[in-house]
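Limitations

Structures in this collection are predictions, not experimental determinations, and the ligand pose is part of the prediction. Treat each record accordingly. The example that follows, with zinc ion as the small molecule, is included so readers can see exactly what is and is not provided: the inputs are given verbatim, and the output is the predicted complex.
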Amino acid sequence: MKGSCQCGNVRYEIPDNYIALVACYCTECQKASSGIGTYSMLLPSDAFQLISGQLKSWERTSTVGTRNKTHFCPDCGNRIYNLNPDAPAIIKLKAGTLEQAARLVPDAHVWLKSAPAWIMIPEDALTYETQPSIEEGLQDLQQKRQAYACYQE
Ligand SMILES: [Zn+2]
Ligand SMILES: [Zn+2]
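Predicted complex:
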C-alpha cells in the first residue's frame, strides 16, 4: 500500500498486511486531526519504507503517560506516524494518509468516551471507553479473530 502527505513531498510504502487498524477518538487525536479522531495502523517499524521526502518529529506525553513521538512532513505539516520511543518496534501509521484509506475497516474503536455522540460503530467491532495497552488490545483482537474462525467453519 502506498501513502503520501498532503503536499506530496513525503511518499511511503508499506506491505498489505498489518497488525491492526484502530480508530481513535481521544481529544489529542481530535486536535491533531482537527476532526473527530484518527485511524492508527499498527505496523512493525521496519515495514515502513520512506520513498521520498523527510520527516520532522515532535514529542509529547500521552494521556496514559506514555511517550508519543509524532513524525510529520515539515512542508505541509501532515502527520505520517507516531511511535513510543520506549517501545520503537511498532509504529502507529496515520492510515488516513494511505491511498486506500477509505476502503480500510478498523478492527477496534478506542476512546469512545470522547467520541461525538452521533458516531455509528459497527456492532462487531471491538470498542473501548478509553484505550487498552497494545498487549491487551492485541489479545482481544486475537480472541475475536479466533471466534470468527470458529463461527465460519
Ligand atoms: Zn507534505
Ligand atoms: Zn487518540
